[in-house]
Amino acid sequence: MSLALDATAQDLLFREAQTANTFTDEPVTDEQIQAVYDLVKYAPTAFNGSPLRITLVRSEEARRRLVTHAMGANGPKTLTAPLTVILSADLDFHEQLPRLFPAMPTVKDAFFSELAAREASGTQNATLQAGYFIVGIRAAGLAAGPMTGYDFTGIDKEFFGDGKQKSFLVINIGKPGAEAFHPRSPRLEFTEAATTV
Amino acid sequence: MSLALDATAQDLLFREAQTANTFTDEPVTDEQIQAVYDLVKYAPTAFNGSPLRITLVRSEEARRRLVTHAMGANGPKTLTAPLTVILSADLDFHEQLPRLFPAMPTVKDAFFSELAAREASGTQNATLQAGYFIVGIRAAGLAAGPMTGYDFTGIDKEFFGDGKQKSFLVINIGKPGAEAFHPRSPRLEFTEAATTV
């Protein structure tokens, strides 16, 4: 079964791409991250709500504050990456809906007047966007090191004091360094992951 | 800023791809979905846990049961798609961890003995995988119509009676039909979605 996507792109994004655990010193620029964003921003979210927010942790001081919330080896790994980003869901994403989803101006008030609804939808859709973003990092020729081993409640207090952002993923980004990759672990077979009804 | 990914692939996956609202009659085969899966299965999840499960809704009877849980226009849309899939998180994904993450055989018991931990991590990582899967559908030259407007608690009872699956997204898949696409809505600018600290 052949795909429409060419083999080189398949390898770049999926087949040969792997989570990087070490990085070279080569800087990752704002322009590179903007190019990633400007590619993946088109991928779908509910009502085009686009709740993902990206915090680029650039200053030494911010990086040191971030790693106080890391678990295990994630702290040292983060300190050696040329760029680390915090991904969060904007719990006030609904404020942008009249502009982002002009086809249905009622959506903002009909579905998202309650914070709990914004938190559920915002987190779900920002997480979908995180999937697109990881693919986009690879599309830029960079390696990603996504980490869920952080105290995200701590990160929210540290960086988003107003309670309007709910962080859920930290990603190291850069060119892979020495011994960056662990051996590829097995994946589930299609017949284990898929069922027909 | 140029990306490593070639422009044709950028267009196929992101820049020209759009959510489809109508489809042709052309069937979507199991082989096509397997090709999508076998591409995107390599993208990262926490501890390689790979909690996403895909239910292909093929029989007329299953399709009719599914749409009883649809909101608004999603029911009629689903009935005209050549294939609809339910994406869910397997809450027992941890049972596979000793095989999927052999580097750390203790992970299963250390982190996932509690159902609440499996539900949080399983849902988050299955949602990341849903993002990869939507990209993969486009990589196969197909259009996706992802829908969150379903009663997922109802779907879980209807299709996953044992309580071991938590559904969160339904996706129509096929070749786009007549007037399949709405006009592209605006996206947030990079400076609106990204901040530097």
Automatic annotation (TrEMBL), chains A, B:
Its EC number is 1.1.1.298. Pfam families: Nitroreductase. The keyword Transmembrane does not apply. Signal peptide: none annotated. Keywords: Flavoprotein, FMN, NADP, Oxidoreductase. CDD domains: RutE-like. GO terms for molecular function: 3-hydroxypropionate dehydrogenase (NADP+) activity. Residues 22-175 form the Nitroreductase domain. It comes from the Bacteria. InterPro entries: Nitroreductase, Nitroreductase-like, Nitroreductase_HadB/RutE, RutE-like. PANTHER family: MALONIC SEMIALDEHYDE REDUCTASE RUTE-RELATED. This is Malonic semialdehyde reductase. It comes from Streptomyces piniterrae.
